[in-house]
């Protein structure tokens, strides 16, 4: 039996060390060092090899090294192979930090003061209380819930939107197509934390922006393909949206000369909102290996029909 890791090799070295400490009985290999492909039972990868079905005939579980699985080509992954995404505290903490930073920057006009400083201009604007700034999160999964919990502690009125109806203390929960309009109408700062699926691709588009209060702001930390870029540029130009914070783009990296690079109302970061932390990721994967061996449900098991 072998556990094979195929992702960033620097972080892989930390995985190897921790596997050796915590699960010494399971041989751990880092791609492309695979002396016996038939022994590979577990594969952790960001991009699995296209021939994984024939290359690793005894594979039992495919782990994504990231929170999403939209980078996988499911047409080459056997239908019966369990696919597990990464659910670990390092990713959650990173996302909570980033979303909090972005919301507070928008709420406290950080970009305006940065601009004024560059112009040598001392000018105070009204400080609005957190209670008057309504935050809404698209996606009430592991990350959306954690982000809302932290933002709620500042006093922002919080709401969320999901596919199925959720109940979260202190959060106004909306669900499905029928719940989207009311959710958007009460949202001043919109955060996208949806998985990328056929039903969420392009969801951040003109019809959605038009349902937000005029001057609302957008934070996209989901995936670049959630956003229709031209619709965002138009909404910013027309004032329907005031600002956007984009951590994800399509494609990545964003091509040179793209309007987002220099747009005064866009803050761009290179997909760093949160990252899998090897120390906590290994604990999560080992916990799932034990669950798998005991016939228990693994945390983060992907429902392939739903696409996340
Ligand atoms: P998750 O636990 O699977 O939660 C997904 C949420 O989205 C659920 O609440 C789900 O609704 C909702 N959803 C899915 N499809 C929907 C639809 N068609 N309509 C309405 N709601 C829908 O995912 P997560 O761990 O929170 O992660 C979310 C995403 O964040 C990842 O997929 C990834 O794309 C992104 N991410 C980005 C970074 C970064 O650095 N930028 C890092 C990590 C993750 P239900 O509750 O009804 O199932």
Automatic annotation (TrEMBL):
InterPro entries: D-isomer_DH_NAD-bd, NAD(P)-bd_dom_sf
Record key words, sorted: NAD, Oxidoreductase
Domain of life of the native organism: Bacteria
One Pfam family in the UniProt entry: 2-Hacid_dh_C
A GO MF label: NAD binding
Domain D-isomer specific 2-hydroxyacid dehydrogenase NAD-binding: 102-273
Official protein name in the record: D-isomer specific 2-hydroxyacid dehydrogenase
